[in-house]
Structure formats: C-alpha cells, structure tokens
C-alpha cells in the first residue's frame, strides 16, 4: 500500500497532475513517514528538471550514427574476417609447433642411435 502511494505520487509529479498529487497526499495523511518521503520527492523533483540535448550534441550524434552506418555498409563482415584470420594464424602456428616437435624428436632419436 505504501509503495503504491509513493508510486502514484511520483507519477503525479512526472505528469504534473496537481489534483492527483493532492489526492495521494490526502490518502497518506495517516503516515508521517510517508508524508516526509513525499516532501523529499517533491523537493527533488523541483531541483532536478529534465534537460534536453543541445542542437550541437544532436548534430554530432547524428553524424556519428551515419558514419557508423556507412562503415557497416562498406565493411559488413570485418569482425568475422578478422576472426577467421586469427583462426588461420592459430592453426598455422599449431602446425608449425607440431612439425617442430616431431622434427626435434627425430633429430634427437637419430643422434642417440
């Protein structure tokens, strides 16, 4: 019940519905703790007003999104190609390592015989 009243109060503050805010406060009259929480919420709401992004920020963001989209169109599988090349180099290194181990074993074996 208390959480519901706090939720309704917060929604009334967000919607700027003064009638709803007063109705919720009237319902909360029995609980001084709840009223103090509502007072804090109202002070916070007055102190922190929403801020809209500047036109410069919006233009910069739009430019970056377009650049990223263009890059994605021209190089769609760059990450996949890089991953495949890592696998290729890893496989090649493994083959060289095994061949080196076998060669070392054969040389050591021929020297002891």
How many discrete structural domains? 2
CA radius of gyration? 34 Å
Biggest sheet layout = none
Number of strands: 0
Distance separating the two termini: 90 Å
Assembly state of the chains shown: single chain
Helix and strand composition category: mainly alpha
The fraction of residues in strands falls at: under 5%
Helix content: over 70%
Order of helices and strands: HHHHH
- For the residues shown, what is the average pLDDT? 85
Shape: elongated
Work out the helix count.
5
**In terms of per-residue confidence, which ranges show pLDDT below 50 for 5 or more consecutive residues?**
none
Task: Please give a structural write-up.
- The chain has five helices and no strands.
- The chain is an all-alpha fold and 113 residues long.
- It folds into two domains: 2-47; 55-112.
- α1 runs antiparallel to α2 (18-27) and α1 packs parallel to α3.
- It is elongated, with a radius of gyration of 34 Å.
Summed up:
With 113 residues, the chain is mainly α. The protein contains five helices and no strands. The protein folds into two domains: 2-47; 55-112.
